[in-house]
């Protein structure tokens, strides 16, 4: 199934609206908090001193890139429908906590009332646009008009297995740290997932625990769909890897900034595991992006079923079929001479020689 022209345009417009919303908040933070201090605050540096409290996080930068990429995919790519679905699902998951966290008492002390009002309006618009993306992708599908029209492709086995292993492993690591967080700081719950006075959270960002669980579930789902070679595996895997990248990249920035690898042996075991997790997260995100970026294999008719016979319906592996008995010659025709050479019989071209002008005796 592919998208109709109207669904493509509608999905691109909705992604454009979401990209404009995210970009406006990023520009506001870059101007009000000073960009140099903004990214240091995102990275978690202790010496970060933004002039005002930022309303965004590093995830918003990735969301802006995702919305632009999905808008382009909706207009031109055969995987426009699953790209709209994953953009809508991520938008709903990220913006839903804003309905109750923007009016939290902690936000009253950090942000002005007019800024919180604009953030609440943007949250409602983003949720409506996210739901509209899913509806557009579901209602705007159609079968290909002819065999020459491009259809969604399936991830090749060389990319599916690494994507499955890396994404599922990254999701498991995120869940393991969430379990460790609950054991070590049980007094932070349930605020760690729904927001509260003791949780550091941007005005437009989800609570830390909420965002981590959302990302872990997306990684596991994308990894399983990749190994199953589903047609929607590439959009989901690329978006999951893109959202996984900021945590790993900013973790590597903290490692470099504080020279943590120099004292790696003297660090506590839990801190060493955290450093390894940051490095693995960055590597997994980059590797999955590289593996899933190329276009996959198209479904073609063949004896092995859809997605299993990519070489234009060839019989695949195994011995070559044996030729059957030769067809009987025309009456009066002599068998061809063995070996190579021009066609025998005086035809002077391709095809069988002409029949004789007279039938043989007794025929």
Describe this structure in words.
- The chain is mainly α and 363 residues long.
- It is 58% helix and 1% strand.
- The protein is built from twelve helices and two strands, in the order E-H-H-H-H-H-H-H-E-H-H-H-H-H.
- A two-stranded antiparallel ribbon has the order 1-2.
- It is globular and about 60 Å long.
Keywords:
363 residues, globular, mainly alpha, two-stranded antiparallel ribbon, 12 helices, 58% helix
Secondary structure layout:
Layout (H helix, E strand, L loop, with lengths): L1 E2 L1 H28 L2 H9 L14 H19 L3 H16 L2 H4 L3 H6 L2 H27 L1 E2 L14 H28 L6 H4 L13 H20 L5 H25 L11 H24 L71
Antiparallel strand pairs: 1-2
Helix pairs in contact: 1-3, 1-7, 3-4, 3-11, 4-7, 8-10, 8-12, 10-11, 11-12
Largest β sheet strand count, sense and barrel closure: 2 strands, antiparallel
* N- to C-terminal distance: 61 Å
Shape: globular
Q: Radius of gyration in whole Å, from Cα?
A: 30 Å
The H/E string reads EHHHHHHHEHHHHH
Content-based structural category: mainly alpha
Based on DSSP secondary structure assignment, what is the total number of beta strands?
Answer: 2
Strand content: under 5%
Number of helix segments? 12
Fraction in helix = 55-70%
Q: State the low-pLDDT regions, or none.
A: 300-321, 329-333, 335-363
Mean pLDDT over the full residue set:
83
Strand order of the largest sheet: 1-2
